[in-house]
Amino acid sequence: MGTTVRGAVLLVAVVLLCALGHGGAQRYEAIYSFGDSISDTGNLCVGGCPAWLTTGQSPYGETFFKRPTGRCSDGRVIIDFLAEHFGLPLLPASKAGGDFKKGANMAIIGATTMDFDFFKSIGLSDKIWNNGPLNTQIQWFRQLLPSACGKDCKRHLSKSLFVVGEFGGNDYNAALFSGRTMADVRGYVPQVVSHIVRGLETMIRLGAIDVVVPGVLPIGCFPIYITLYGTSNGADYDGDGCLKSYNDLSSHHNSLLRRSLANLQRTYPHTRIMYADFYSQVIHMIRAPQNFGLKYGLKVCCGAGGQGKYNYNNKARCGMSGASACSDPQNYLIWDGIHLTEAAYRSIANGWLKGPYATPRILH
Question: Could you say which residues form the signal peptide (predicted)?
Answer without folding.
Answer: 1-25
